[in-house]
Amino acid sequence: MTDPERLVISRRKLLLAGAGGLVVAACGSSGPPGRAAPTTASTAAPVAGGLSLAPVFFPQQPAGVEVRLPLALADATGALVEESPAELSVRMGKADTGELGDPVVVERHDQDIPRAYFPFTTTFPEPGNWRIATDVEGEPAQIVVAALDRAQLPAVPVVGEQLISVPTPTVDDARGVDPICTEKPQCPLHATSLDAAIGADKAIALLIATPAYCQTAICGPVLDLLVARQPQFNEVVTMIHAEVYPNQAEAGRTTTDIVTAYGLPWEPSLFLALPDGTITNRLDYTFDDRELDQALAELVQ
């Protein structure tokens, strides 16, 4: 099996869209291409009352770098709850000690997207299993997350690193991708190739997403949010949308050049970068109006 095929299989096992909504499942023994398969995974942990924290992110996370972990509240069956509080007080600690750190307040985000989430940002100081816990009106909920050395994970560029210069399909050169956009009608973010945008005079917003095949049914909504902001930021930000699969026949089998180059086992992923390609922010899995507006404002300030 080729490396791109392994990556697609891992993606298809990872992201699920069912009656419960936007929930990420563990990918078992499937590992990223060219890497050893991780042996642990994020686990939603229902407690006495039946609530759990559902992970809306890749089941293993890197230690030693800041990560953004969208969380959701789920019931005992794993289905996302229909109503959630305006904020969560979240604490984190090593899973084997029982100790938790100071609380961090995380606001609910749900503007113009199908499901609410809570974007918890943290850094796992070292590899190991880490417990993230909260409570809702006295009812506890928690999740255990596996933090690994970055060498064991897909080499996706992080904040502070450089965008990988890859030609992306445009209306003038599809580069064998058909269609270049599975949004209907086709979105307008295919005028400039990524390799041409890096080093030019504008900041860059690169969204890798596949509206027609997205396993979480969130790729279309977040693409719409970005497209809606193009007129406002057109003079200062080059916005680029790149698809995950080269065509319908290859969906679920092989990926486009940019997905392979970036080592992405999930979608969607939004990279925000300075004109020279330095990444300033990365919004993975899901984001709403508020998070996007804040990220774009910080990019061009």
Q: What is the overall shape? A: globular
Low-confidence stretches: 1-41
The count of β-strands is 15
The CATH architecture of the largest domain can be named as: Sandwich
Mean pLDDT: 85
- Counted by DSSP, the helix tally is 5
Task: Specify the structural class.
Answer: alpha+beta
Radius of gyration: 19 Å
What's the helical proportion of residues? Answer: 10-25%
Write down the secondary-structure element order.
HEEEEEEEEEEEHEHEHEEH
User: Main beta sheet: strand number and arrangement?
Assistant: 6 strands, mixed
Quote the CATH topology of the largest domain: Immunoglobulin-like
Q: Could you name the CATH class of the largest domain?
A: Mainly Beta
CATH superfamily of the largest domain: Macroglobulin (MG2) domain
Number of domains: 2
Distance between the termini: 46 Å
Percent in strands: 25-35%
Mind explaining what this structure looks like?
- The structure is a single chain.
- The chain has 301 residues and is α+β, with helices and mostly antiparallel strands.
- It folds into two domains: 3-152, Immunoglobulin-like (Sandwich); 194-300, Glutaredoxin (3-Layer(aba) Sandwich), CATH 3.40.30.
- The protein is 16% helix and 29% strand.
- It has five helices and 15 strands.
- The protein has helices spanning 3-14, 194-197, 219-233, 257-262, 289-300, and strands at 15-18, 21-24, 43-45, 52-55, 60-62, 66-74, 87-94, 104-107, 118-123, 128-136, 139-148, 203-208, 237-242, 269-273, 279-284.
- Strands 3, 5, 7, 8, 10 and 11 form a six-stranded mixed beta sheet that branches. A four-stranded mixed beta sheet has the order 13-12-14-15, with helices on one face.
- β14 and β15 (279-284) form a beta hairpin.
- It is globular, with a radius of gyration of 19 Å.
- The N and C termini lie far apart (46 Å).
- Mean pLDDT is 85; it is low at 1-41.
